[in-house]
Design a protein that fits this description.
about 220 residues; alpha+beta; Ribosomal Protein L25, Chain P; RNA Polymerase Alpha Subunit, Chain A, domain 2; four-stranded mixed β-sheet; 4 helices; about 20% helix
Length: about 220
């Protein structure tokens, strides 16, 4: 596996003062894990955004911190964002031991076209955006690519047990859980009561008119 690498600058500013860094386009970072000392670091927001687009949260990255010996294999474990602007406020990198298995969420990506949609007008129902796996850090897949061209009608389903995974990767979700299927389109039904009610009103109007005609004839 090709591992992306990133260099972090050492950070001495902590607490509420980190707001000054954010105004300058710098994001505070925390590196922790493997019983080693935690490190406070920082990175330019543009560099971090590019990195996150490439690796997500399930791809390992080689992290080198200024002033530290060597680099560590890490995973992104938490990304804090501004509630309105969506800008990144803080990121945690988790160090891992490449010889020990870890758990990670692997995104699900659909490929192909489902005949149940194109030919029958159905709707794709996706129950999982990602699947939980256990594997060595360097063997975690980037994504599960699932072919949905076999969803020919509303009866065919794809379950967790149908998802193919590499030999050394274990999917921890319930094997019988539904991943995706095509459901029948919703059809609007006109209520019969409404129709009957309208007919009743017409009948009443008719009776009223007849009554008026009778009164006129009596005069």
């Amino acid at each position: 596996m090709d591992v992306k690498s990133v260099k972090l600058s050492a950070r001495t500013i902590v607490g509420k003062k980190v707001a000054l860094l954010r105004r300058k386009g710098i994001v505070p970072v925390h590196v922790y894990g493997t019983q080693a000392e935690s490190i406070s670091a920082q990175i330019e927001d543009q560099t971090l955004n590019r990195l996150l687009l490439e690796i997500g949260s399930n791809i390992p990255v080689s992290v080198e911190v200024e002033g530290q010996d060597g680099a560590d294999i890490c995973f992104v474990r938490e990304v804090q964002r501004h509630p309105v602007k969506e800008s990144i406020l803080h990121v945690d990198f988790l160090r891992v031991d490449v010889s020990q298995t870890i758990t990670a969420q692997v995104p699900v990506v659909f490929e192909g076209t489902a005949p149940g949609i194109t030919q029958m007008g159905g709707v794709l129902l996706q129950n999982f955006q990602s699947l939980l796996v256990e594997a060595l850090p360097m063997e975690i897949p980037a994504a599960f690519n699932i072919d949905i061209s076999g969803l020919i009608d509303f009866e065919v389903t794809i379950q967790v047990s149908d998802v193919e995974s590499p030999e050394n990767v274990s999917i921890l979700n319930d094997p019988d859980a539904l991943v995706v299927r095509v459901t029948a389109p919703r059809i609007e039904i006109v209520e019969e009561e409404e129709i009957e009610g309208e007919e009743g009103l017409e009948g009443e109007e008719g009776e009223g008119e007849e009554g008026e005609d009778e009164e006129e004839s009596e005069e």
